Queue: 2 jobs
Job 1
Amino acid sequence: MKYSNGFSLFLFFVLTIFTSLPTDASEYLKEIVRANDLYSEKRYAQSAQAYESLINKGVRNGYLYYNLANTYIRMGKTGPAVLNYIHARKWIPRDENLEANLKFAIQQTQDKIEPPAPGTLSTLFFWSNDFNLNELIYLAIGLNFVFWVSLALWLYFPSLKIIRNALFCFLLLSFFSIGVKLKNESDFKLGVVLVKSVEVKSGRAEDAVTLFQLHEGALVTVTDKYENWLEVRLNDEQKGWVPKNSMGT
Amino acid sequence: MKMFSGKIKKIVCLFLFLALNPVSQSFGQDISVTATVDKNRLTLEDVLQLSIIIQGTQNTPPPELSSLPDFRVVSAGTSSSTQYINTQRSVSITYNYRLTPMNTGTFVIGPARVRANGKTYSTQPITIAVQKPSNRETAGNRTAFVVTTLSSNKAYVGEQLVYTFRVFHRIDAKNLNLSLPFDKTRFHKEELGEPKSYNKIINGLQYHVQELSLALFPLKKGQYEIPSSIIELDLIHSTQNRSSRDPFSQFFGRRTRAEHKVLRSQPLSIEVLPLPDGAPEGFENIIGQFNISAELGKNDLEVGDTTTLTLTVSGKGNVRDISFEEPALKGYFKIYPDKPEFHQTIRNNEIMGEKVFKFALVPLEAGSRTLPKFSLPFFDPGKAQYRVAQTPPIPLNIKPSATKEKLNLVQSRQQDAQAPEIEILGRDIFPIYTELDKFQNARSHSSAFLGISFGSPVILFILSAFIIKQQKRMKYDVAFYRRRNAYKNANQRLKKMSALEHSGLSAPKEFGRELSEILREYIGNKLNLQGKAITAEEVEIRLKEADYESAEVTRKLLERCETLQFAPTTRGSTKELLGESENLIKLLEKQS
């Protein structure tokens, strides 16, 4: 009787957490339909505005970013297009259309800079590149549940030791994958040039030496920021500072 | 004693160091630097020997000579000496130089500077007079002389000239060192083989001649003087012979004396003419006399066969620079050009060359064809006119292929032609997504969600593990099983007794026995004892040992039950006893 009461309480908490998620989806779905219709009518500026307003309201969806990037491509704005494709890739990393369109957008830029190659950790945990953070978390939650169930079963059936150990390894891997994903998202923060051209300076001053020039849509890695300046890196040798308002991150 | 022998060793080592180390040789000895020459009057054919002698040390960097633009200076090595005179030790080092005069006149060899022990020492200046060679020796009776010739003193730009240098010497000559001062901006130079050596009699005197020829190609038009060529050599003079009867001469040979000489040729002048106007089309600065020939491997062949077209250009001049493009046969032939082969030969002191071009031809269509002429426009300096060397047209008969299936080349082309080629006409982006189910808002997860998601399986596991553990204990731990079920069993039996008591069917004696048994069994289960066999006193002792506070009350109740068993009373007392028993068991359950 005591146990059943405890379990009921637990279920109540769980259901409270899950059912307390906002369910105002229909509101913004209508807005998405409107933005898509505007796109179909080739009213790209209004369409982009509608997508942007959704993003500004806090909606985070890979397909939304993808549609917005497509709209910018149609408007001839390669910089915002590349930036939104990069944002979309964070949420829908396995989408083939996205990869193709991103490549197309990069080809439209003057500098034609490809996204940087994944680091050593990403190469080692290669599957983490194909999942977004939420998917990795769900995977870890699922594995966590299965593992503890297997642990309980093992108390009854000691022969399940191998399954228990295997599940434990998978669980650890899933946790490491989340770690790698988080580290990559913090270390390899990509930036895109949003203005026609920007001079990359040797220091955080307008009169500093211009090291090189980047053009709209150029992809760089943002390595540091200081007040209104961002430190950007093109490769191991080329890096410098650019005004923050010339870049999108 | 050991210390003393150590000191002696140190002193000996120091002495050896001072004696053997050249650095130490300057200690206690003044340093002086002097310059000497072997002669101060000489001719252009002579060489001056300059020696810089440094007394007092041998450890100095080489002297710094003053600028000597009228001499060519060559180092002739160093020599050092160490002398002991009356226990006085003196050291010196001599730097030798060989100065070859380039002009006549009076020249001053400026002071040479030597740095030693942190000081700079200078030599005294030396005045030298350089004269032309004396004319008392004519060309007919000179011991050695040089002659240079040019094949022509007038040439066109790019025309091949032959420059010949000859050194005549009547006595042995060694250590020949020739320098030919050509201006690289005016001439391209190529060697014409190895130097020749032969004998020649001039005015009845036999000379040994060494001859070197060079091909010169003028690069610029204009009047130009080829400066003197200079050769340095050692002439070996034999001094007075020992008597022929002297037996030692058989062993020691003749005595000789080496005379170092510098021989100069007369400068040569040449007029380089520009190429005349009217160069034919395709002229690419090919100058000389050339022949051209074309040869085909076979004139009758089938489609897919291979034949080789060999184009040979030979002649005198810059053959190396000749090149031909692929013949204009595309569409009819597949053409595979080979790397041209070039062979250079020297004939009559002139550079001759042959360049062979090969083209592998694979006919693609049947029919009669004619290979076009190959033309080589060039300038002939001998005739002072432009000419065009041509090959005759070559007829070719191509039959259809008899065995088509073996013609891999043709087959492969057909296969390629059949392969569908998709022409990319444009590029565009993939369309937008419109499926609304894709647009679910991806929210970032709260800490509570993550905590519950990851923590709940752990809690469930802990609960499960506890339950499993309890069940296992109930299964295998008898004491635990009895203790857990004691109250339940006792309670059930007490309820039955209560029902009997209410119905009035139970006798007081039986009632007392039954109640006593229930109590003792309950206590036995609780304490894992054989409850039925223990007495009231034992129950009190065991309960006290187990820290039950109601041990005494329990004993008294058990005694009353026993009293009822053996001295039955009224029904009211049984009801009271039953209630007390139920309360006691509840009390004991709380205390357990």
Job 2
Amino acid sequence: MASSTRRVLTVTASAVALGLVLAACSGGSSDSGSGDGTAGGSDGGSSDALDAALEQGGTIEYWTWTPQAEEQAAAFMKAYPNVTVNVTNTGGAADHNLKLQNALTAGSGIPDVAQLEYQSVSQFQLPGSLTDLTEYGFADLEDLYTPSTWGAVTQNGGIWGLPQDSGPMALFYNEEVFTSLGIEVPTTWDEYITAGEAIKAANPDTCIVNDSGDAGFTTSMIWQAGGRPFAVDGENVTINLQDEGSKLWADTWNKIVQGGLNCEIPGWTDEWFAALSDGTIATLPTGAWMPGVFENSAPDGAGKWRVAPMPTYDGTPANAENGGSTEVVPKGAPNPELGAAFLRWLNSDPESISVFLNSGGGFPATVAELQSDEFLGFTSDYFGGQEINKVLVEGIDNVGTGWQYLPWQSYANSIVSETLGQSYLNRTDLNEGLVAWQDANVKYGEEQGFTVSTE
Amino acid sequence: MSSVVAERPGQVRKVRRRLTGLWFTVPFLLVFVFVFIAPLAYTIWLSLFQTKLIGGTSFVGADNFVAVFQDPKFWEGLGRVSLFLLVQVPVMLAMALVAALVIDSARLHGIRFFRIAMFLPYAVPSVAAVLMWGFMYGERFGLVGNLNGWLGTDFSVLSQQWLLVGIGNIVTWSFMGYNMLILYSSLKAISPELYEAAALDGAGQLRIVRNIKLPAVQGSIVVAVIFSIIGSFQLFNEPNIMQKLVPNLISTYYTPNMYAYNLSFTGQQVNYAAALAIIMGVVTAVIAYVVQLRGNREALK
């Protein structure tokens, strides 16, 4: 503790000194560029400043955990030889957010472009840590993206990033398990529970799903059930994890958890990947970005898996987003214009998106790619030759609107295990766990100065 | 510190000479101030404020400290590491003592091998150690899973009842050899004449252990106990890494150090975490001091 606070101190001190130098540099070098940009674009926005910055060149820092990032940066530098992009692989969302938050707090070492999960945008935007890209004419790019991903990067009257990928949910299932037991792939959650009971009865070591209380999964499932537990309006936050949709999900999922139909294998562990490969886990309701993960991390499952639309509650198709990221330009970045120019290329240029799709199996957020015949007609060997993208893209239209995350979603996610997770652990009513999670968030929100209500 | 000797009357003219001495200690003092005093002062400074996402920073005096004392999460974590301390440390030190005595007895073959083998875990980075043990504890693919398969049992280390024991096992594995080495080195320092005299008086091995070796290592045991107390109160790596394996069993406030870490880095409550860190520092220092005082008194008997 003591040593880390000291680091903050010295970092802050050097940041002040560094900041002065940088301010002096950028003041001199980008005068012409930013002059044009702000003159033309205080309201409608202009991209002239970005073109000027690209021409002038320079070096930018890009923090991401996207596997394709290095390759995308290389393609960018080939197209714009004046610009150098230093890619820092931050490993994963949790470490990444921590690192970014620390840089922002210290005021130094802030990257020019950084990846953020959609669920973290609010957390960084609200304290003013992100650059509004409206001034660079990003509003013109709206039509390129699906409505739900565009909605995820715009809030409070600003544009804070461009969508990189999306995660409309789908039901991934191990066909071998279903055919060997002679059961149909479920289309409703009732059928899903019946199938879960059959799978458990056939072999107690297997299960229909692995879930022991995961924040991202829980919020997406509540979203799909029609719940909108979080509403943020500036400093006013509403948290109601007992609204109709939240209850509907909890009551349904209670049958799985209390019936012992789930495996308690934590996600993203070796054990999990092994269980996905060998038929221990029969289904996985998750985001459309999953096929790439399957191929890379569970290669032994090849040929066994298929994709189906998400089961519904009452036969009416309903869906939600799970995961997905955007790139943003943090406030205090040394080279925001060049950063924004790179970001624009990264998530809107067909060449970049092509790299993103082809060298890592990403799922795009751009309408053109989602509707292209090449994308829709793609047959996956891993999925036994199924045209998986047709199923996944269909799911986009059913994504419910109006979902919001909390302005402290990272923190909220970190305490899911000790609240909701306890209901999983003791196999008690998940509604109680949701209430415990809500209470902890209300307490935190009030401590942080928000006006929190639960209605 | 030695330069700040209390002044006596009549020594005023020595002040200048003493100031000369001070100049020689400036390099040390600079480092000392930057590395020890500044972080402490900054932590104390931080603990007096409160920063909110909405509303910014304000001075709150001792409010953070009052809040820590009223925080059940803090007490739960402190209770857990105290229990850990009371059970794990005696077990580990007893094992270390026995191992040191055995190796010192010179009655074993391959002493060097055992000495190194026991010390080796200390050289394994704790992250690697936890991952390794975590894998062995696994019920599906790990050693525990295999044992359950052979024995037809359903035992689980990664369960509510056994998790702390499992963590204690990892810590013991890591630090037993280290403590053994501390004790062994003080056994080595015993003068051979004492053994000679003991042999002349007809003392047996057990007698030598009780009347010569144990009294000789008492000081080292006090040192080892103090290190272990500090280590227990700072328990962090093992539970923090294992949290990924058993998220529902390890809360963000499982130990006081984890609580401070999560408060400051996930919850952005740096000020509250600073207050918690100061309280834990004081608690640790007081307990370590009491142990040292008692230990020294015992040693003088």
